[in-house]
Write a structure and sequence with these properties.
This protein is mainly beta. Helices cover 0% and strands 45% of the residues.
Length: 293
């Protein structure tokens, strides 16, 4: 399907996938339930199909969640579609959306990054502010409570910080600030927040175990987390039951622990999946570990 086309970005969700080609077009495939593929229906797509709703738009980023999807166009606008219950689409209602629709709450703002989680959404604006909306259970919206948010709301706990990257997991969230610090909040099961316990965290809290290490990328999965340091080292924590932490065992880790298997390697990208993990090293090789189902 991509013969003769140059793919520049990809995102894999709960049961669907996206690719962006160099011409700014979005392609999707997989399960179409909830309308998460963006084709105006709920049909399964066995092959990549262009999302025609973006004709005339230039898409620069896309994120596939469990039941919904998000994209950013070149003008800094956010679009969302798919399952709308618990307001994770950001329109102020809980309606399902079969086609991409612009999130009007960001009119006048320039959004530079988005992340679609299990039942919540995160967006980062050009001024370094973090916004969240959707299901608030477990506190993964970062507003100090467990209330659902029908519309995007700024995470005031990070005011004064410049956020440069975000990642929404199933029930927890990660943010990276300009000083290389990692912040986490939400459900603390298995220690996936990295604070040395399993407590719910209603507000963003810095992961002190990584203080002094300049982190350049983070990824939140269902029950584990991964961080990439500037020196090319990988750190992981949370649920290790399927070996997804990469430490050679199936132990959970309440604090970030360096993945020693990459000693002598320089990792340049990380991604945490449901119960597995992937990295790319500087020589262009891909590495994977965890559940092989």
């Amino acid at each position: 399907a991509f013969a003769g086309r140059r793919v520049v970005a990809v995102s894999a969700g709960g049961a669907h996938s996206f690719a962006i080609t160099a011409d700014g077009a979005v392609w999707s495939w997989g399960l179409g339930a909830f309308g998460r593929l963006g084709h105006g229906d709920q049909q399964r797509q066995l092959l990549p199909k262009k999302v025609e709703a973006f004709a005339g738009q230039y898409v620069i980023a896309v994120s596939a969640g469990a039941f919904h999807s998000m994209a950013i166009t070149a003008d800094g606008a956010v679009w969302s579609w798919g399952g709308g219950y618990i307001a994770m689409l950001g329109y102020g209602d809980q309606q399902r959306q079969l086609l991409p629709k612009k999130v009007e709450a960001f009119a006048g703002q320039r959004v530079v990054a988005v992340s679609a989680g299990g039942m919540h959404s995160l967006a980062l604006t050009a001024d370094g502010a973090l916004w969240s909306w959707g299901a608030g259970a477990f506190g993964h919206l970062g507003h100090g409570d467990e209330q659902n948010q029908l519309l995007p709301k700024k995470v005031e706990a990070l005011a004064g910080q410049r956020v440069v990257a975000v990642s929404a997991g199933a029930r927890h969230s990660l943010a990276l600030t300009a000083d290389g610090a990692v912040w986490s909040w939400g459900d603390g099961d298995y220690g996936k927040l990295g604070h040395g316990n399993e407590q719910i965290q209603l507000l963003p809290k810095e992961v002190e175990a990584l203080a002094g290490r300049r982190i350049v990328a983070v990824s939140a999965a269902d029950s584990h987390s991964i961080a990439l340091a500037a020196d090319g080292a990988v750190w992981s924590w949370g649920d290790g039951g399927d070996g997804q932490l990469g430490h050679g065992d199936q132990q959970s880790q309440l604090l970030p622990k360096k993945v020693e298997a990459f000693a002598g390697q320089r990792v340049v990208a990380v991604s945490a999946g449901y119960a597995h993990s992937l990295t790319i090293t500087s020589d262009g090789a891909a590495w994977g570990w965890g559940d092989g189902w």
